[in-house]
Recover the amino acids of this structure.
């Protein structure tokens, strides 16, 4: 009985976060900041998925052979190629002859981009811990604008790939800083929902990408068009506040008080005694001595090691299958613009359903179910006779499953790892997901030589991920583990 009362008191303390009490869990101020920050996810989606229209499937023939038809055949000692410009005026494939023995360069470009996202996550994650959330975020936005625009004027593949790497570093930077800033302003009660809703602007960005591709059939103009909107984000220098939570931990109390007063007033809360209340928060923060351990600690004990490997593999599944299936759908026969638009549109309800599913079914059942949806739908592509409509439908169902899985693994990893290694654990998981996304373009384009290979890979791997979920505990409604001992238990 006494033990239960103690747990109730502890959970009450968790609920009564002092900063949340001062500015509110969510109100007009937080909603405005979230709206402003969420807009950044549009360019994140545009740049991550742009390879679909920068390097779409293009029919070609060797100019040295006297043939009018585009036979897509590779001949030895072919000096130049002719391309079908009926759909796209110019792509990076037709401009730099990324076909036949140079086709792998097209995939390498996207792999290098995903490596840049990983580097950006790590670099800007470190900078945001050291210098605050706001300035690294603004630096990432500025770098995204400059590198994105200059990429459109690339004169060769090497320049294009190098600039795209810098663009990816910046994009990874905006992703990590914007997510951290948002989560630090929202009360614990609403973090789960807001954390999942945070994915929807990415889905909408993916949905609007075919519009750019349809009206801008030249890759230079397309790249320029998806980069220039970042000019608007320079206004964030005036619109975006620093995280008061970070300011308090950094000892910048007066700056934190000003922002908290603004937030409280906007949310209709009293600001009386806010200064003295803030001093109490600073004392509480200063008295907490956090223990830290490296991610290697996750592999020392058998149960925690097994769970770490299982959740990391599921992040790999999400990185590989989400970006791989998205690119694969762009290669399915039919109208590429319609195919991509449909595959993007189905992700929005998937993300919203994941909120309900995680609350009702829990993390474990939701992740197993969504992985199975993706796995079986992709395997059916092999069985069902080749048809543009049927393969597109099954591919979209697979992508819908991944949209639920991606939102779920974010929550799952945050709740599964003990507090002292939570950042390291989530960082490791995210790194594994990026490795999956780096492999994805090579798997997606295997279909050009062996049609059944991509759906086989995208079918089996999620099912393995679903099987590994069996060893994971369901963390819904459970107290977060703080120590390695609690994580093991």
């Amino acid at each position: 009985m006494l033990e239960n009362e103690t747990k109730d008191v502890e959970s009450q303390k968790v609920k009564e976060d002092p900063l949340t009490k001062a500015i509110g869990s969510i109100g007009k101020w937080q909603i405005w900041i979230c709206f402003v920050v969420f807009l950044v996810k549009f360019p994140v989606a545009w740049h991550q998925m742009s390879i679909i229209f920068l390097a779409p499937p293009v029919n070609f023939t060797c100019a040295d052979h006297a043939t009018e038809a585009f036979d897509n055949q590779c001949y030895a000692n072919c000096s130049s190629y002719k391309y079908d410009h009926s759909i796209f005026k110019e792509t990076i494939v037709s401009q730099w002859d990324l076909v036949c023995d140079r086709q792998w360069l097209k995939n390498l470009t996207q792999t290098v981009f995903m490596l840049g996202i990983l580097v950006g996550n790590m670099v800007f994650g470190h900078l945001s811990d050291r210098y605050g959330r706001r300035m690294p975020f603004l630096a990432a936005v500025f770098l995204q604008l400059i590198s994105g625009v200059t990429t459109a004027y690339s004169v060769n593949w090497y320049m294009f790939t190098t600039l795209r790497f810098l663009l990816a570093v910046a994009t990874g930077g905006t992703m990590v800083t914007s997510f951290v800033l948002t989560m630090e302003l929202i009360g614990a009660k609403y973090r789960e929902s807001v954390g999942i809703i945070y994915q929807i602007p990415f889905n909408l960005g993916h949905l609007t990408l075919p519009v750019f591709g349809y009206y801008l059939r030249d890759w230079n103009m397309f790249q320029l068009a998806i980069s220039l909107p970042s000019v608007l984000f320079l206004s964030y220098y005036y619109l975006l506040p620093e995280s008061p939570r970070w300011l308090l931990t950094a000892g910048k109390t007066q700056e934190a008080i000003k922002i908290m007063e603004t937030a409280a007033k906007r949310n209709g809360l009293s600001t009386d005694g806010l200064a003295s209340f803030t001093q109490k928060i600073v004392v509480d923060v200063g008295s907490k001595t956090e223990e830290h351990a490296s991610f290697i600690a996750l592999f020392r004990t058998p149960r925690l090691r097994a769970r770490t490997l299982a959740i990391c593999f599921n992040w790999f599944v999400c990185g590989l299958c989400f970006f791989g299936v998205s690119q694969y759908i762009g290669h399915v026969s039919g109208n590429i613009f319609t195919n991509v638009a449909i595959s993007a549109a189905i992700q929005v309800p998937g993300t919203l359903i994941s909120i309900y599913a995680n609350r009702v079914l829990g993390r474990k059942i939701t992740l197993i179910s969504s992985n199975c949806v993706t796995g079986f739908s992709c395997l059916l592509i092999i069985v069902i006779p080749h048809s543009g409509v049927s393969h597109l439908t099954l591919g979209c169902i697979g992508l819908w499953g991944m949209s639920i899985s991606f939102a779920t693994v974010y929550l799952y990893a945050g709740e599964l790892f003990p507090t002292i290694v939570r950042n390291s654990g989530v960082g490791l998981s995210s790194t594994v997901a990026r490795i999956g996304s780096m492999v994805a373009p090579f798997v997606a384009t295997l279909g050009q030589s062996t049609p059944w290979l991509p759906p086989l890979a995208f079918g089996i791997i999620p099912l393995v991920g679903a099987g590994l979920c069996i060893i994971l505990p369901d963390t819904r409604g459970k107290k977060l583990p703080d120590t390695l001992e609690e994580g093991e238990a």
Q: What stands out?
A: The beta strands are 60-62, 81-83. The longest helix spans residues 302-331. The chain has a mean pLDDT of 84. The CA atoms of residues 367 and 405 lie 5 Å apart.
